[in-house]
Amino acid sequence: MALIVQKYGGSSVADAESIKRVAKRIVDTRRAGNDVVVAVSAMGDTTDELLDLAAQVAPIPAPRELDMLLSSGERISMALLAMSIHSMGFDARSFTGPQAGMRTDSRHGAARIVEVTPTRLREALDEGAIVIVAGFQGINDDTQDITTLGRGGSDTTAVALAAALGADVCEIYSDVDGIFTADPRVVPLARKLSHVTSEEMLEMAANGAKVLYIRAVEYARRHGVLIHARSTFTSNEGTYVLGEGMKNPREPEGEAMEEPIVAGVATDLSQAKITVVGVPDVPGKAAEIFKIVAKSGANVDMIVQNAAPTGRADISFTLPKSDAAAALRALAAEQSDVGFEALLHDDQIGKLSVVGAGMRTHSGVSAILFEALSTTGVNIEMISTSEIRISVVVRGDELAEAARVVHAAYGLDGEVEAVVAAGTGR
Amino acid sequence: MALIVQKYGGSSVADAESIKRVAKRIVDTRRAGNDVVVAVSAMGDTTDELLDLAAQVAPIPAPRELDMLLSSGERISMALLAMSIHSMGFDARSFTGPQAGMRTDSRHGAARIVEVTPTRLREALDEGAIVIVAGFQGINDDTQDITTLGRGGSDTTAVALAAALGADVCEIYSDVDGIFTADPRVVPLARKLSHVTSEEMLEMAANGAKVLYIRAVEYARRHGVLIHARSTFTSNEGTYVLGEGMKNPREPEGEAMEEPIVAGVATDLSQAKITVVGVPDVPGKAAEIFKIVAKSGANVDMIVQNAAPTGRADISFTLPKSDAAAALRALAAEQSDVGFEALLHDDQIGKLSVVGAGMRTHSGVSAILFEALSTTGVNIEMISTSEIRISVVVRGDELAEAARVVHAAYGLDGEVEAVVAAGTGR
């Protein structure tokens, strides 16, 4: 008997009909002879509605109370899901984060899991029940207050439960079919991947792929949890995310095909570029600049510095569009201290990343990228690389074309256009 | 420094504006130098909306899960209330039923409080915080599952907290100004009572007065808690409900007026009457009938039996209209066994009750009632009495007139018409 952890996001339990559909899916998994533990998010827009209410009563809600408020969303969805399963004749019990033993630190709104002690879940499983757990929430070990895990928290809940219970697989359901070689809305010939390594997944997620949250993938990688990303709306197999030493469970032993060099092409239109012009070319200036930017709360991604023979350098960096205003304000306030000449702001950029574990052992991967872009006449503005990734910044309005050309150049194109799921929210 | 427990019902926290108004009221109480503990219900129609969702996913929701679901309503209102108080510059902390130490038995949906261990509330009070507690909910001591207290549960939560913390007073806020000598919508000249004894309050509540829940009044009586029923929408003093040996805190020592013999007139249109016709007049038949009725789940109120010299008797009883169908079905199924001749059902009755602790020591109280009714030509169909109450059943469409006449006959009429609150729901 296998133990399967499943995670359903808000769009999968948006209304009574969806909840009944998910309940049926859970019951089918149970009927197939598996133990089932489910992590569930709040219904549809519940969290946004609660945030809206909070904003109406308090301009800056107290973090402890905001977590108390938001954690009510999952209580609603999980209780409804449990009673729906019950009405199909199966024992199901819902547990809040605290009841599930999801112990965290005290950072309200962005708590980290410290330890999972799923005693009550084990008992319920031993008694034959299907276990439903509130995603996104935990309890602060010190003060016994409710905490929430922040963005993507329910994915993390599911993976943490899978790790603590030694589950065979953690199925993360969403409205897309799995992980694709590119975003099918950008690259119509994108193919669904049968599997991807967790390090590739991390690079793709960090560079624009939205199917899984980085934090959950990291947790899975660290704790050896096998993730299966699949769709709530079909029974198709999705994509397995393999940690170190893991095999794709669908590929019979010994028959593994040779791994492709490039797993996928990720695109990202959410970044802006700031250029600090005419920075005195003396040691410590870059440190000075990025200390100022960090203090503004901005999350810097790519950095390029052109040291010119004039004794002045230009430093460009990218960051989320939403962080740009604060970073610009912070830099402008320190202009005379740092001694730079001007600030340029560009929010019309696009980032294209090619990701593949095979890059480690194959040369010439970047040449294919640059060649493909040059034949299309796309200008490269910035380049950055990791061991298994090459990213370039191009004009935003050229990003889609660039992605299609690069996708084809690496031989990733499928034979038919991918079907894009109707729902796009998660 | 006094410790004041306040309870706000769903209509008092129905939206963001109401929550801010309640927050201000709580802050004013704190500013006046009091420690404040607040029990709060779910916002407006939240509970009904959750019940509706439950009905959509499961015809008969599992009780444990239904309690989990419903308990989310108070988490929302209490977190919003706490953050609203916070934004006014006061420390406020919300606590769920379990966190507040509200320990109950395991009857989901109708749990009884077993013990209150408000350790965390004491700590928060000692640290100067305003304490907000989720009404209506607790935790089952055996299985550590969430329970709810059923109808009027938040009133009971407030009184139980007041008892456990040794509060000076438990203020129960609603949309009416206090306890009246009669329902002002029925008797326009009804007067607000400055105080009422808890035994009078119990009789009035059991016989149609809707301001306070019986269970909360009983708990207060048993644990010596002073209740102050007042309005969320005015700063008027309301009505004190006095337990044994308690004095009205508004009346200076020694100046207490003589107690009125009759405290009020309660009216109730929610009952129906069933008459079992032609019951064999042999011992044990009444027991047989009421065993059948009890098994149907019906809650019998008044009973009248006319033993006739014919060897056959008619037995009439009243019960909530909603219980009548089940009781009739159950009786009809046993007609041949019991040997009665026919069943009559009448849902056009009204019950009028005169309540007053002074009845114990004064004679002639019932004579005033019968005299008043006879001069108006109202026919009495059933009579029942307790130590401090006389109830009569009359035609439903004559109830209002009967109440006005009786109210005047006991000298209860005020000089001006009472203002009826805009909102009527609780």
From TrEMBL, chains A, B:
Alphabetical UniProt keywords: Amino-acid biosynthesis, ATP-binding, Diaminopimelate biosynthesis, Kinase, Lysine biosynthesis, Nucleotide-binding, Transferase
PROSITE patterns named among the record's database cross-references: ACT (PS51671), ASPARTOKINASE (PS00324)
Pfam families, A to Z: AA_kinase, ACT_9
Domain (ACT) ranges: 274-357
SUPFAM superfamilies: ACT-like, Carbamate kinase-like
Pathway it works in: Amino-acid biosynthesis; L-methionine biosynthesis via de novo pathway; L-homoserine from L-aspartate: step 1/3; Amino-acid biosynthesis; L-lysine biosynthesis via DAP pathway; (S)-tetrahydrodipicolinate from L-aspartate: step 1/4; Amino-acid biosynthesis; L-threonine biosynthesis; L-threonine from L-aspartate: step 1/5
EC top class named in words: transferase
Organism superkingdom: Bacteria
Family, as annotated: Belongs to the aspartokinase family.
E.C. numbers: 2.7.2.4
Protein name: Aspartokinase
One MF term in the entry's GO annotations: aspartate kinase activity
